[in-house]
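hey so u asked for the seq, here:
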Amino acid sequence: MSSPSDKLRVAIIGAGAVSDYHHVPALAIDPRAELVAVCDTSEALLAQRKADWGIDRVTTDAEALCADPSIDAVIVATPNFTHKPISLAAAAAGKHIMCEKPLGLNAVEVREMYTAARDAGVVHMTAFTYRFAPAMRYIKQLVQAGDLGEPRHFRSQRFLDWPETSWGWRQYKETAGAGDLYDMTIHRIDFAVDLLGPLKSISGAVARFAPRELTADGQACPPSDVDDWSAILGEFTSGATGVWEGTTLAKGYERGGFGHEWAEINGSEGSVVYRLHEPNTILRGKTGHDLAPEQVPPELLKPAGSPRDPSQGEPATVFRYDLVWEFVSAIVEGRQAVPSFYDGLCAQVIADAALQSHAERRWVDISDEPK
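ran it, structure tokens below
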């Protein structure tokens, strides 16, 4: 870092909702970093963000921003099909990179991104936000400490009640890669692997129910060609089993806009549950006792050193600020971020295998990926 203020100089590429809700507030509370530039293809949105975010420097040229020597790191929050070229440009220019998920349109792209960032020696991070949920952090501690006994089953549900109008670029394979599988289920693939270790073999299925031939204001558009429902059965190398299901068409699952999320581990000595709408509480139970609420210990409500106040804000939103905290911490401390592009690659390989499994109507083995 060589800025006059000695802060990490961060540029955001992609000025949409995820940056507005998560990344910009996170940078605002981190005294070690500052937002110095914003890039988006929409000049109208850039004009709005200048006012919203108090930023003067805006551009529509992502490649030029990546090459700029006055930028230390970039956060990439653009459509999926742009992740690879932007990340490759950033790595080539020696910029640290945090990129939204999925990292690319397929594992071939993601492997190229990972290799480029690794070889450039920059910090690289996949925005797998839910690893930072306090309940998930607590569950990981319980698993690692053996408090659940031998983990036997993992189970994930992610049910959303979204409008059946157009998703824009998200509803086409050429720009999104896949639908619910890449947008939502891939998060759950990642934290399952983080909790229980690598998967050995999977069977997957996807389906599309909503044609999405109209925009929200009633204009005609090409119909969707990606999934709005996905499911996976998995076998972990440990011997544990996994089940994932995600949908955007679960009517009535509103929960204040956060939808329904339930992730569960059943071990030989007990069970534990994470729920997105109550991320500071787990459900825990064992034989002879029902699942019951248990508060996450205070020390696990946020990473050590994070300036975030866990008692402030909507719990299901504010834990996401710790994603940027980890990215900045990794850069400042000279280490690799967790989760990295390698973690993004591992999850992408599994998601791709789910599509292959559905197309070929068979189980698919998950090959080991090079570190």
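The chain has two domains: 8-129, 130-315+347-360. The mean pLDDT is 96.
lmk if thats what u needed
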